[in-house]
Design brief:
Blueprint lengths: L3 E11 L2 E12 L3 E5 L6 H9 L4 E10 L2 E2 L5 H7 L1 E4 L6 E5 H16 L8 H14 L10 E2 L5 H15 L3 E5 L7 H14 L5 E6 L12 E6 L2 E6 L2 H9 L2 H21 L1
Parallel strand pairs: 3-10, 3-11, 6-9, 9-10
Antiparallel strand pairs: 1-2, 1-4, 4-5, 7-8, 11-12
Helix pairs in contact: 2-3, 3-5, 5-6
Length: 268
């Protein structure tokens, strides 16, 4: 069966400040979606809320995935169901190699599903990791480096994509993966995402800019303003934003809100 991530009327915030004000979104396995919007509109908050960051509080709405409402569920439980988040700012862990981190992550997921699972053996893991690194065209010595320690911006994002490849989730949320990347690093990261895309993986790319969508072609594009998705369309919507910015959409949204207020007053 195709896994579906369905967000219904999601309201959430941090420290008593509401940031998301009624988000509705559906992403299925095999689809690539892009979520765009200006700074401060709630895109990264949305990513963190989807994955269960404890600093954010959901006050209304549902996050439905694999037959469960994720609201109130711990991040590791969401991961075991098949949800993945690639961070905008990955954390460095000196002393922990990329390979050891990935093996520990795989075993944590397996044992979370079945406490009797003995975990993946070293030979099996090495074979899996080699296959994934070859798929992503990554040098094998990368696995021996300490996780994100001394990594360039591009290397940190490639490490995130390697995690995605190794954990094999059903839905992946990429939170501004293009942030801080030069054009060469952007192409490398995008090629990795494209190598993994297919019927078994749904992708939600969160970004400010259209440039990453030159390499990762979305099936649907959604625009967030003021904590809500106010416009959705095909890939051409991102191109329209690149050319015209967000002002036309702000005006359209404001006009719609004003019309709704007038109608409510008239009906009241």
């Amino acid at each position: 069966m195709t896994a579906v991530l369905e967000v219904r009327g999601l309201h959430a915030g941090i420290e008593g400040k509401e940031i998301l004000r009624g988000v509705d979104l559906v992403v299925r396995q095999g689809e690539t979606h892009a979520l765009m919007g200006p700074n401060g509109t709630g895109k990264s908050t949305f990513a963190n809320v989807l994955m269960g960051h404890p600093a954010y509080q959901v006050t209304e709405g549902q996050i439905l995935f694999e037959g469960a409402d994720l609201v109130g569920m711990e991040p590791d439980a969401r991961s075991r169901l098949g949800l993945f988040l690639a961070f905008q700012y990955p954390v460095a862990i000196p002393g922990l190699s990329v390979a050891n981190f990935l093996r520990a992550a795989i075993n944590a997921r397996r044992r979370g599903r079945n406490p009797e699972d003995k975990g993946i053996g070293v030979p099996e893991f090495r074979k899996l990791l080699k296959e994934k690194m070859d798929l992503l065209q990554m040098p094998h010595e990368f696995a021996g480096r300490y996780l994100n320690d001394g990594f360039s911006g591009g290397e940190k994002k490639r490490a995130e994509i390697l995690q995605l490849a190794t954990l094999e989730p059903k839905i992946a949320v990429l939170d501004e993966t293009d942030s801080g990347l030069d054009i060469d690093a952007l192409r490398i990261v995008a090629s990795g995402v494209n190598a993994l895309a297919g019927e078994s993986l749904g992708v939600l790319v969160i970004t400010h800019y259209q440039r990453i969508l030159n390499y990762i072609k979305p099936d649907r594009v959604h625009i967030m303003l003021g904590g809500r998705i106010v416009e959705s369309g095909g890939a051409e919507l991102a191109e329209h934003l690149e050319e015209h910015g967000y002002d036309w959409l702000r005006e359209k949204t404001a006009a719609g809100a004003e019309k709704g207020t007038r109608q409510a007053v008239a009906e009241g």
